[in-house]
Amino acid sequence: xxxxxxxxxxxxxxxxxxxxxxxxxxxxxxxxxxxxxxxxxxxxxxxxxxxxxxxxxxxxxxxxxxxxxxxxxxxxxxxxxxxxxxxxxxxxxxxxxxxxxxxxxxxxxxxxxxxxxxxxxxxxxxxxxxxxxxxxxxxxxxxxxxxxxxxxxxxxxxxxxxxxxxxxxxxxxxxxxxxxxxxxxxxxxxxxxxxxxxxxxxxxxxxxxxxxxxxxxxxxxxxxxxxxxxxxxxxxxxxxxxxxxxxxxxxxxxxxxxxxxxxxxxxxxxxxxxxxxxxxxxxxxxxxxxxxxxxxxxxxxxxxxxxxxxxxxxxxxxxxxxxxxxxxxxxxxxxxxxxxxxxxxxxxxxxxxxxxxxxxxxxxxxxxxxxxxxxxxxxxxxxxxxxxxxxxxxxxxxxxxxxxxxxxxxxxxxxxxxxxxxxxxxxxxxxxxxxxxxxxxxxxxxxxxxxxxxxxxxxxxxxxxxxxxxxxxxxxxxxxxxxxxxxxxxxxxxxxxxxxxxxxxxxxxxxxxxxxxxxxxxxxxxxxxxxxxxxxxxxxxxxxxxxxxxxxxxxxxxxxxxxxxxxxxxxxxxxxxxxxxxxxxxxxxxxxxxxxxxxxxxxxxxxxxxxxxxxxxxxxxxxxxxxxxxxxxxxxxxxxxxxxxxxxxxxxxxxxxxxxxxxxxxxxxxxxxxxxxxxxxxxxxxxxxxxxxxxxxxxxxxxxxxxxxxxxxxxxxxxxxxxxxxxxxxxxxxxxxxxxxxxxxxxxxxxxxxxxxxxxx
Length: 761
What we know:
Blueprint: H1 6-47, H2 56-79, H3 86-100, H4 119-151, H5 162-185, H6 188-215, H7 220-228, H8 236-262, H9 268-285, H10 294-314, H11 320-344, H12 352-377, H13 383-391, H14 404-407, H15 410-422, H16 430-437, H17 439-457, H18 461-477, E1 484-490, E2 493-499, E3 505-510, E4 513-519, H19 543-555, E5 560-564, E6 580-585, H20 588-595, H21 602-606, E7 613-614, H22 617-620, E8 629-634, H23 649-658, E9 659-668, H24 677-686, E10 690-696, E11 708-714, E12 729-732, H25 748-760
Parallel strand pairs: 5-6, 5-8, 6-7, 8-9
Antiparallel strand pairs: 1-2, 2-3, 3-4, 9-11, 10-11, 10-12
């Protein structure tokens, strides 16, 4: 048979066309996913300054993205119900072109300043108006292009789910490259222009996909795959399970992200890590030959659930690697098990778009619960343990249990165990004290028991679920904090007020970070009377106390002070008669907590008429008159979750404008995980200010007197008084090799690296 034989030529032509179809469709889906998931950290970073850099901004953003993903999938599902192939192609290309006309990305006019309440719903509106159309168009691409691919008649058409893996590879690479490459290398404006160019390229690729579809012959096989086949429709029970299997890891994604970002930084670096792992699970489970077999993941899932229980019992926030690594590894395994079940039960290609609608609906439900409902329903981060327990129900129905005779007695055994362990927490007896002392071992043992049930006895998922619930109840009954704990939750996070044993101190905490504390009893147990002494970071011997004293002495009399960040109100008692101190605070719940005398009495005793300015300081402080403050204290950095937009060149320019002729800016940069002193020195230098860094221990033995790191910046040495000649304060030059942070550029990864490097020296 010669190469000129018509059948050979036809076969070669068909093979060439199949390769072309596969290449173009894979490229289009890859680029679409790349754009879809790079826009999330990119635009959210634009929005962050509007709401103080709160990690909750990312949670609400995820709810928006998941909800619009559902809309895009439903739109794709509707289009592919049409038998005419031309209409879906033309309609989608028109939508993409209309979306292109709204680019480059920008916050919509009229949405520059948030309201005083209802932040979550305001954010959803901002996202919808600003990027709703381009994101909706991108969201529809994955199921739509897969459905088109089925209809091209390609040999792989009957099982197009491998393209979903290609999509998630693009998503994974987009998220992974953002904190490592895009954020450190490019400004937000440059990132925006690159993204807009990519959107234009995508339209060309999707146009090519449409042309290949329309040129494909309508063979009988294609008609069958397109919807006329005999494959039975998935039952509603299976559809409901798809939704549940998608909802649990989606909610866990937000809960884990909030857990780790609260104690490090509200920055894309930490948002994209769990989201990247989440997407990687989709890549792995939809491979034709999974790299990690599903049965392995089902075996590892109970161990991962037990691992989170142990991590929550131990804490671990003091250790960055444990916080980031441990929780995310366990999350990865749990998500792999859930998504593996979805891949195992996926339907025939005919029902592809409906399957994706169920997945996106489940993702939206999980996101709504963790991102919007839970913050209003609970005063603590209850969504993480709730979703962790529900993860046990994501396991497939088990077969025969091993040791069935023993298994019958497990329910009464678990009930007795729960009562025996939880009941003592209602008293202050010796048993309670012993259990409290051994809380980690007790909680860990119950958590490990749930894993043993699954692996050793092949127990039903309901028994595993119930055992995990008992372990999580023990976490609540025996908290890691010593003393009495009350929680206050708002859009900006969960704050704990810890009353230490004996009532000696009241401590305000956000995660594991202390925002302030007040001494209520003396060593002999008698109540503290008179004006409270500022302690923690604000004691008179520390950097903040020394700076206030030096500026007061340099001024020769009363000073006018602005303080960004209220905390427990400690700095109200650093004022002296005749002075004017004005506080700026974004979180009304923080103000209410600091005012409540059952928690703290700084404000009542020192500034009873205090009227803090509520709102993000970049917006509210910018309205203050120029040239009036002798000292500006930026105290938004004592928490490990930092509002980055308050440490940029533009922010320092605002502070400088508000300074009196001999005024100074004092920035508190104590942080476990990020080195921020050099950042402040750099932004001050760009504004022609000199900086002195203080990083000393007070050498006091008091329990709540902390070492602090602060930077004071001023125009001249004379403006900082005796600090300029103090050995504790080092005049520091800006590092010319370190790029200055601006509203358009920041590098959290670099700050983390410098802290780790300094810790090793």
